[in-house]
Amino acid sequence: MMMNVPLVLTSVLERAETIFPKKTVVSRTASGIQRYTYKEIGERTRALASALAELGVKRGDRVGTLAWNDHRHLEAYFAVPCMGAVLHTINIRLPKDHLSYIINHAEDKVLLVDRQFLPLIEAIKDELYTVRAFVILGDEAEVPETALAPVYAYESLIAAGDRRYRFPQDLDENEPSGMCYTSATTGLPKGVVYTHRSSVLHALTLGLVDTLGLSEADVCLPIVPMFHVNAWGTPYACTYFGSTLVLPGPNVTPKVIAELIEAEKVTTASGVPTVWLGLAKELQERPHKTDSLRAVICGGAAAPKGLIRLYEEKLGIPFIHAYGLTETSPLVSVARLKSYQNDLPEEEKWEIRATQGLIVPGLQAKLVGENGEAAWNGKEMGELWLRGPWVADEYYKDERSREAFTDGWLHTGDIATIDEEGFVKIVDRAKDLVKSGGEWISSVDLENALMAHEAVFEAAVIAVPHPKWQERPIACVVLKEPYQATTSKEDLLDYLRPQFAKWWLPDDIIFLDEIPKTSVGKFLKRALRERFKNHLTSASDPSMA
Ligand code: ADP
């Protein structure tokens, strides 16, 4: 028999403090770039924990953060769970009623707030029933006049705190360590609670060479916000492995990303596809030195094949496509070729690289169709169900758990195929599929094809109600500047025609200046569906003829 040593985040921090005290965390803040060693981060983290204990935070209490990706947020990432409390990372871009809902629902006792987000909290302060203290993430000089009370300056708490504070030694690995709310399609956000055990196992998984292979030698730049599924687990993994962390702070633009990559010699950066679209444009317009990059990691929405090829063939930057959800911590699968697939024809290899990939060790998947389990033959579609040690088994105090979890499986709401080799291909989110005349059209496939066209910058395909076919696809397209005057709807339809069955072709292509984005940078298809819901029912609709 082996020792039953609990998997707790304290051991993650302690490893960095004792084995990598000289390695650094680079933090871009409103007042410039700051550098801290893991030794300093450890001391500041302990001081924060002691200060939070003074403020009355007890075991199991929730502490909310409204913060950018910076060193203070990283300190909260460890101080809160390691003292036995629960870190609630709040999505700063939620609408006001959702913000107050999740703070009350999580029963946050203390809020750590970046000065920039103070107005958000001031606007809802009378609706917050559980918060006892507000901590502004800065020094005394950065605490503005505010109607909130009591208010503390983070740096004063750190200065007065105990840098040698000892975390409780009796933490159970199944105690909650963090929580994050995911936006529901309709209705209020749903809470997911992570445990110490799930967080540690997930962090370890990011180090496997067949997943992301994060290691000590990496300089990691998480562009994905720390309020979006724990920045995909990178803060915990990087601290565990002693990797250098580059935290990009507020107002991250493609230019900021390019400059950080060059200046800090970043080796891996992670973000959603729109981030990579933006960076590619920046790099093509203003070249930067990016040869330190061993991979950009793309997830959160489907990475179009054209984007992967652009990075690898034109920019010379390796590209890793991964898939996951808030409910799964998030890592579920990574698209890497198997060793014996290296000899496949080029086209086939790109196809595989654009799938969502192979389920990572530790998780299990199945496809559930209308008639039971679907076969893994790359054709039969079904909803992807998942289980594993870092998959939620309920939403926090939420009746909607009943539909989303059955018999120990999470129903992802994603419609997928899995091929004989085990590669998962997300066909669409169930809610984004276009249901045309009893058949399904994948908005993702059409978007991918459109975004491979040289004139197209971004494309979102949505289902629009249709009197005869129930729904038909229309494409909303943003053209690259140099092509705006010369590219027509017909050009794009001609380009799609040989690639798809006739009934898959969008009924219309609408040129927009911008595709609206969700709070975490994904295409906000809900807004487009709302805007164009009558597009095919008006008298002028050509498809009515
Ligand atoms: P939200 O619903 O707010 O987007 P999440 O960030 O948890 O919440 O999103 C998870 C969903 O994002 C998945 O269910 C899936 O639909 C989509 N997704 C994530 N990664 C990918 C990917 N690589 N390819 C396609 N879809 C993805």
The gist of it:
This protein has 545 residues and is an alpha/beta fold.
Supply database-style keywords.
single chain, 545 residues, alpha/beta, Rossmann fold, GMP Synthetase, Chain A, domain 3, 3 domains, nine-stranded mixed beta sheet, globular, disordered C terminus, binds adenosine-5'-diphosphate
Q: Would you write up a description of this structure?
A:
With 545 residues, this protein is α/β, with parallel strands linked by helices. The protein has three domains: 9-167 and 176-246, Rossmann fold (3-Layer(aba) Sandwich), CATH 3.40.50.12780; 253-329 and 343-431, ANL, N-terminal domain (Rossmann fold, 3-Layer(aba) Sandwich), CATH 3.40.50; 432-544, GMP Synthetase, Chain A, domain 3 (2-Layer Sandwich), CATH 3.30.300. The strands form five sheets. A nine-stranded mixed sheet has the order 2-1-11-10-12-13-14-15-16, with helices on both faces. A seven-stranded mixed sheet has the order 7-6-5-3-4-8-9, sandwiched between helices. Helix 1 packs across helix 8 (234-241). The longest helix is centred in the N-terminal third of the chain and has 17 residues, at 38-54. It is globular. Mean pLDDT is 95; it is low at 541-545. The chain binds adenosine-5'-diphosphate (ADP). Adenosine-5'-diphosphate binds at residues 182-183, 299-302, 321, 323-326, 356, 412-414, 426, 429, 522.
Question: pLDDT average, as an integer?
Answer: 95
Hetero groups in this structure are: adenosine-5'-diphosphate
CATH superfamily of the largest domain: ANL, N-terminal domain
Q: Strand portion, in percent?
A: 25-35%
Low-confidence stretches: 541-545
- Helix-strand makeup class: alpha/beta
